[in-house]
Write a structure and sequence with these properties.
134 residues, mainly beta
Length: 134
């Protein structure tokens, strides 16, 4: 973990507190809970980019760097790294701020791919990217 960056990359998309109900038999937060939070955040970003429904089609290169502990402030950052005709791929980083020490570190990262879905349930083309004015 020594090559891990010191600050999150991407946009803060979801933030919650890890609770005792989300633990595994070892007392750490269950990995499935971590992945589900990452998927929720990725879905928010995918739906914004798709301007409508989007569905997860792949999760690649998922890496768990450190456990999530009860009481950690759990934050998910999303960054679009590639778009295709119907798909959007994001790099997702999950970070924690430790309740006891205040230390912040990346705990999990991976690449999530979504496709835009029409109301009928079939894939559809992504709309043109909207320029953000300021």
């Amino acid at each position: 973990m020594s090559d891990q960056q010191a600050t999150p990359e991407g946009e803060l998309t979801l933030q919650t507190v890890a609770m005792p109900a989300d633990t595994n038999s070892g007392g750490d937060i269950f990995g499935g809970w971590v992945v589900s939070q990452m998927d929720l955040a990725a879905g928010i970003t995918a739906q914004q980019r798709a301007q409508g429904r989007a569905a997860t089609v792949a999760i690649e290169a998922l890496r768990f760097h450190a456990p999530v502990l009860v009481g950690d402030l759990f934050s998910v950052y999303t960054q679009i790294i590639r778009t295709g005709r119907t798909s959007v791929t994001m790099h997702i980083e999950a970070w924690v701020r430790r309740q006891r020490t205040g230390e912040q570190s990346m705990v999990t990262e991976g690449d999530f791919t979504f496709v835009a879905i029409a109301e009928s349930g079939v894939t559809r083309a992504l709309p043109p990217e909207v320029a953000h004015g300021g």
